[in-house]
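Ticket #4471: structure output looks truncated?

Reporter: J.K.
Steps to reproduce: submitted the chain below (98 residues) through the standard prediction queue, then opened the result file.
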Amino acid sequence: VHSMRKAQSWLKRNRPDLVVAEFHFDPELRDRMSNLESLMAGLQRFAPDAKVVVFIDRMHRSRLDSVKTRYTVHGALDYPIDESSLEALLETIAKEGK
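Returned output as attached by the reporter:
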């Protein structure tokens, strides 16, 4: 899905094993710092066992670290996404699930 609102709605009907999301920092948000926090809260409620992979702009890594103090992120990859790094991360997550 391409919006957080649609993702939240989708989570109410589905229980994913893995979620890949982009981290978008928005300094104008009052109660959170990014789009990811809404998604992570929904995952805690509807799919607590889902693994989360984040695609992120390198300059926002420190902000992701703040999010990771409250929510579990199983991996993060900087843009531009390296295909072999993504494959390795997904393989690691798959092995953890066994």
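Triage note (M.O.): checked the attachment and the full token line is present. The CA atoms of residues 1 and 10 lie 8 Å apart.
Status: closed, working as intended.
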